[in-house]
Specification:
The chain has about 400 residues and is an all-alpha fold. The chain has 17 helices and no strands.
Length: about 400
Amino acid sequence: MTKTRPARPVVGFAIMIALSLLIYGWSFTEKPNNTIISSYDEMLADAADGNIGAKIAWLFGDWGDPAYQKTALGGILMILGAIIAYYVDKKKKTTFGICYGSGLFWKVLAAQILAALISNFLYQNLFRTQDIAFVPTFIPIVSITPGLILVFGGEWRKVITAAVFGGLIGCPFAYFIFKNFVQPWGLIGAVAWVTPMIVGGLISFETCKYLPWMAKQASDPQDEKPSAAAAAEPPKMNNGWFVKRVFADFSEANFYGNEIAGLFFILGGVISVYLNPLNPGYGDGNSYLVFLSSQILASSIGVFIYWHRYFELGWYPTFVPVVTMGPTFVIMYGTGIHVVLTGALIGGLFMPPVANWIARGLPSHHHPYIGAVASMFICCIVMISIFNQVPGFGV
């Protein structure tokens, strides 16, 4: 029996466009001059001095870095939202199963925390460098570490292996690319962050294929079947589903893919604006809100355009422009409304199919996230090169 393709969610799309524009307008209003939490610069300076509180705040902020929203509160609330979603999902109260219904959420989270500790404390000297106002400690959380677990399984020795691979490779590799290629060649910063996710991921997956303890076992937690509720017929695709899908895109880079985690993450960032407007957005709460506006718009455009692909495949990488093209355009070309609209439209239109095409060509022992980050690399390089020559953008 052929299933009827659901109608495009025009109402849901209109709601999210309105929300995006509302947040954009809000970004230009004056914010309370509160200092309840540290500013971004203070957090970085204190972390460089070894202040344990600042280091922990920076570590939790790593959960928001892929979305250009480094706030400790946002990271903590994303994790809390993911935990809530894990238990709610067992009762089929949420649309999108945490960690894609794999049953590996706790193993993924444990590995991410261990990798974050390695990345943040092993490379303490990078916090003291004078040539970069940022340390890419977030890399393993959103690439190598969870990818290895979702491919090879969740036994504890695999969890530790995934954390060590991600923690050792991600941060120093990203800094090397930034220092030796991005800065001298004038490339966009995203190149430095996604290159280790691609190259380091390929190396890690190929290496782990030959490690005897990484071989899949019949008893491996990866082979756990989703609960009966999770295996039931998925929710009807409608306007409500559309809105949830957009919020879920905000936690996709962290491998959670859940609307509760995504919404909690956004709330954490918004609250941080009022706790100290110099905390989010790498020291600029107004820019943070412009980022957020562009990201909601980019995801909404992607989900709306590729609605039929979600229906046919069950999932599609519409999150890719959320963590690259949308905010990258704002960083490169300013906060004008034409910049926000163009970056979101180009990202939502071109990046998901490129990511999907690359992912389909990967070997079975490679996680599809490599397709997503490869799309980020290719599309950002191409589009920024083009728009650097366009009046109103680069010239």
